[in-house]
Amino acid sequence: MSYIVVDIESDGPIPGDYSMICFGAVIVEENLNKTFYGKLKPISEKWLPDALAISGFNREETLEFDDPTEVMLKFEDWIKDNSKGRPVFISDNNGFDWMFICWYFHHFIGRNPFGYSSRRISDLYCGLVKDTFAQWKHLRKTEHTHNPVDDAKGNAEVLLYMKNEMELKISLK
After folding, report:
1. Name one GO molecular function term (predicted).
2. Residue numbers of the domain that contains 70
3. What region does 38 belong to: left with phi over 0, alpha with psi -120 to 50, or beta?
4. Separation between Cα atoms, residue 111 and residue 91, nearest integer Å
5. Which helix (H) or strand (E) holds 109?
6. What CATH number has the domain bearing residue 18?
7. Active-site positions?
8. Quick check: is 171 in a domain?
């Protein structure tokens, strides 16, 4: 079983009406050197300037990005090539990140290699410290830049911290 931390950037709040602009993923293991980065051409004419600005790209740049089907097929291949056993999707905000990744997988290639579920880092941390209001983002080593690979790495560092320092029982084989 491999845990894969994913972070996405979009130009709006929901897939379909709006577009996933880019995403990053990292296999959770000690060196965090297995990463994926995809930039996807918008699928809709709708976009919110404030949402898109978070990604650091402008609309004209995004129109030159890659075909979403090709990106999702490459991501699926990367998952197969780099994970052991069933891949587990985990993120900072899986309600948002999962929604886009799951929708794009099913919409563009008809399947999702992660299956039908995901995990949220915050819930794991809050459970470990027994406080539903606990904050954990200070445990990131990699700066949160809204580059989705950087953000996924920072979140993976927190998961490793919980495993190594807080004795979270998690198999990262």
Report:
1. nucleic acid binding
2. 2-165
3. beta
4. 20
5. helix 94-109
6. 3.30.420.10
7. 146
8. no
